[in-house]
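Pipeline run #58 for the internal structure catalog. This entry was flagged by the ingest filter as a single-chain record with no existing model, so it goes straight to prediction. Upstream metadata was stripped on purpose; only the residue string is passed forward. Reviewer on rotation: M.T. Logging verbosity set to normal.
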Amino acid sequence: MTWVYKSFEELNGAEMYELLKLRSLVFVVEQNCVFLDIDDKDQKSFHLLGYEDDVMVAYSRIVPAGVSYKEISIGRVVTHPSYRRKGLGKELMETSIACIEDRYGRQAIHIGAQVYLKSFYESFGFNTISEVYIEDGIPHVEMLRS
């Protein structure tokens, strides 16, 4: 895996196209969820792009504190369906956390997680801090890593 970490301004057109394509493949098509993925947070965020053989197969968005939550956040965590069950999601989260710590130092990270992934995020030290809520038709919880 090759990891690339860029601000919105550093992304080129091809990278932006590929990350939006991957997000749409999973969040809209695979999860059968009609929602507006383009939410005006990309421009304020940093983007972690994961490549295998020049194909983008993993992605997360690092959202600065004060944009989604008062704490920094990791969002739009996604792996390509064809590349799952290989530990890529774990590597993506570890790399996302490392990027935050390298850029901002160790600090609290706040996420909105789909309920079925709660134990996955708990394995990285996240704890549930909210009741279950429905977002775009999918049960979620807020989680915090102190």
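catalog note: The two ends are 28 Å apart (CA to CA).
catalog note: The mean pLDDT is 94.
status: ready for reviewer M.T.
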